[in-house]
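Quick one - inputs below.
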Amino acid sequence: MKGLIVITLLGILSLLAEVFNVKKLIYPIAIIGLLFALIINTTEWNNTFSWSYSDKMVMFDNLALAFSSVLIITALLWLMMAKSYFNETANVVEHTSLVLYSLVGALILVAFKSLVTLFLGVEILSIPLYVLAASRKKDILSNEAGFKYLIMGSFASAFLLFGIALLYGAAGSFDLEKVTQTLSQEHLPYFTYTGIIMILIAMAFKVSIAPFHFWTPDVYEGSPMVITALMSTIVKTAAFAAIMKLFMISFYPVFESYVHIISWLIIISLIIANLSALNQNNTKRLLAFSSISHAAIMMLLIIANVRTNLSVNALLYYAWAYSIANITAFAVLRIVAEKRGETIDSLKGLAFEKPMLAFAMIIAMISLAGIPISAGFFAKYYVFSALLISPYKWLIVVALLASVVSVFYYLKLVIAMFQHTKQNHKEQFEGLSISGREVILLTICSLLLIASGIYPDIIANIFLVK
Amino acid sequence: MIGNLLLLIPLVGALLLMLPNFKDNARKIALFFVGLEFLVSIAAWLLNRSSAHSLLSIDITWINAINAHWSLKVTGVSLTLAILNAVLFPIIFASTDKNHSDSRFDYANRPLFYSLGLFMQMAMMGVFITRDAFSFYIFWELALIPIYFICLLWGAEGKEKITLKFFLYTFFGSVFMLAAFIYLYHHTALVTNGGYKSWNMQDFYKAGQLMTPAQQTVIFWMLFVAFAVKIPIIPFHSWQPDTYTNAPIQGTMMLSGLMLKMGLYGLLFWLVPIVPHALEEWKSIVMLLAIVAVVYASLVAFVQTDFKRLLAYSSMAHVGLISAGILSGTRQGMDGASVQMFAHGVYIVGLFYIVHLLEKHTGTRDIHNLGGIRNLNGQFSNLFLIILFGSIALPLTQGFVGEFLIVTGLSEISLKWAIIGGLSMIFGAVYMLRSYRSIMLGDVVKTNYTFGAMDKKDKFSLFFIAILVLLLGIYPQLLSAFAGQDILQLLSK
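Output:
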């Protein structure tokens, strides 16, 4: 809870920075503030008294704290990656505060205790992102992305609100515990299920599960690279924490009523995402489809729902591995894109000219593809493991095939880096500079990916399973 | 203890070579590390003889959350393959040249090349000596990454497509293995004392044997696909000839000499004992696949003109026979397989070494463009002949011991398998001797090339391989004694 307050204050502070004319200090202040939030977040760990403010709106239990730590770490890495984005625009202040408020929304989303805070979290998370997606004002694609995201996002919000209203009609309360109690009764009114399905649709929009994914490739492609990275990491992690709280814990009494819908959504997503990714030539679009595929695999954990800490651990670990790998990949792509554009061909010859970038990219791809010894492998392992003790074992076949196909397009990026171009590479990569900050970022990310791949206990044992 | 050393030495070497300050003596450093590894493997062999087994095994917890152990054991067949791994890598690295004046051998003296090679040695060593299914899978996948990059970076024309196909095939197989292993892991709770889940090999055996026939069948096929892709057994073979031909010669040596042994080892230790009932049920089908591979590959080898590609098919035929021996489930078959795995590794690397020398000296691998080399370099042709005898299983070579035992094992199942399997030995003799005649005998008339004296290191390596082929043919007990015990234990389970 204190972390949430710190970050909110940080957002206000960065708005005030304009007034006090300390624009240049914003970046270090944001980083130090987030580090402080992270530390203060961990001090609340294992607090027997679970925090509950203003009529049970949010609760920061261990689950929420773990997820918010992952979110803050991702945000820190993201800030390191996005420095130059802040340099290039005049609106440093607005951008910083928008990002911080988006993070606030994400933290609310992992800690909500009531359907009202769920809606608030989703909105606080999304609205800054609509603005950020359109933040390249003169770029028509960026405008399109922002507009599309806004329209689609509003749709999802409408669904969410309608779903919440219907659930409120059944339970007579916004409180999640009350909702669970109501759902465990027999003879529920029919509109309860409609409400749950509508919430499911809204959340599927947010994490871009097919068939609600159509906005993803366009928005990812149009937005500035760093904002795409933000959308594909923080939004996913937060939204999945919310999905877990809703569909694995709170709505569990009526699990049977929506599990089949989710499993079909997963199958459709895995097929569409993996097949579409095969033919992409734009790296951002490719990673957009990859993110859909990863969302579907995380959804498998919701289905597996083995009712132990195993699922929670697995989801946390997956979010961690996926976020770090994605940040790494986007950091490399952003550096390359500055000089060479966003197509896969732009990576050609990278391994010969900038081996450091190529190495980080390989680690990220290996992790996303789920090959040992990377964090991504254990993430995949935990999903398969949970799935194989659930009643939905047959889904493993789809997941395995999807995982093989995904290797194909991740390797496409790797192969491109080792391809020779017709022209001399030296000239092509001339002027492509890697700053010390980026070197540090890529080193940290690669080390984190490998270290949590060799010794997954660091994260996988947070909620002890025995 | 020894197991840790065996893994640590190549890993340290690989990491050391990644540092930027070893540009000039990368080859020397790499040779030092593989040499050290070789000595350690010999030490393991001596310790095994003196039955100091406590030094050879280790078992500590690695990942608490899933009860995965760091469990290594360098005995029995694992020891044989560990020695094979340690023996072949010095030869593979020795085959590179100090200067890479020739653009085709661009990898020579590149730190990255040796680093990847050492990494691969580490991963394969892990596959051979681990007793824990989880780390087995990890090492299995890890071995794929360095060889993928070796092929991708230094392969011949068209390497992108070929390496991608290779990677996808093997990855396809291994994800099924992962799923099968996880399924088995969840079942081990029934057989362990405390009711906890375990990745231990012995627990897997017990858990697998308790399963219903339907479950065993599913596990059997999932594991079989994984191993069959690596070996390769028809119909999962189509990546092999292209990859072998396209890869740089050292990559081909690693693939054929060692990497496919991972598949065979998997069949022997991670398939047959886990699902024995399913094996009984499906034996005729999988053995048919293996034997068909033998005949098919032999026939295709007949019409190849590229000597490297011919060897790729010949290797497919030989390992088809080895897998048939393992899948027969008989003691002779499995014994023979364990001997033949070593023998095949040694002579196939020798033969690819010869391809490398031919290409280096004459600039071609095409059998029809070669001829009369015996007149130019008699020593080379004699060494070639000895290694070739090993490959066609002439008595007094190790190949003979292995293939003879395998065919005996096959005849226990059915005489027709033995006859068809035995035919492959004759086929092998025909196409190998024919290509020897075409390359070595006759006159140098077709193209003009010279074949001067071999480098010292090449001479020494070939000599070493020839000695190994003969020594283990005359006295196979050196390695097969303890491997045999291992298999006896396996069958008694």
